[in-house]
Design brief:
Iron-sulfur cluster assembly scaffold protein IscU; alpha+beta; 5 helices; single chain; iron-sulfur cluster binding; binds FE2/S2 (inorganic) cluster; iron ion binding; 134 residues; Sufe protein. Chain: A; ISCU; three-stranded antiparallel sheet; NIF_FeS_clus_asmbl_NifU_N
């Protein structure tokens, strides 16, 4: 199976590889695994607490080329988006952008799950803070 040029580009030059401090109040962390293949993806967002806009993102993926490309692409896409916009991101858009074949669709689903988990983690942190204050 041949990878598309976009997958190879992200695989060879992954954007935003790394991590933020998990305990940072402005960071949301999503860690998900694909049961089918055992690949694991960690995606983190850094949010401006005043505006609710995602200002930066990082990922670390232990997985196939399509999973690495999907997470790299998502870290680029979510910058400048609100939490709700990021959570609404669909794996079909990722799969289309990267021209993923049907057997690699689950790799893009992993990226969708990871960004949703990161947004939920951020919201949970801040929901808890708001309740503690009130
Ligand atoms: Fe499992 Fe790509 S083969 S994430």
């Amino acid at each position: 199976m041949a990878y598309s040029e976009k997958v190879i580009d992200h695989y060879e030059n992954p954007r935003n590889v790394g991590s933020f401090d998990k305990g940072d109040e402005t960071v949301g962390t999503g860690m998900v695994g694909a049961p089918a293949c055992g690949d694991v993806m960690k995606l983190q967002i850094k949010v401006n607490p005043g505006t609710g806009v995602i200002e930066d993102a990082r990922f670390k993926t232990y997985g196939c080329g399509s999973a690495i490309a999907s997470s790299s692409l998502v870290t680029e896409w979510v910058k400048g988006k609100t939490l709700d916009e990021a959570a609404a991101l669909k794996n079909s858009a990722i799969a289309e952008e990267l021209a993923l074949p049907p057997v690699k669709i689950h790799c893009s689903i992993l990226a969708e799950d990871a960004i949703k988990a990161a947004v939920n983690d951020y919201k949970a942190k801040h929901g808890a803070t708001a309740e503690a204050v009130a």
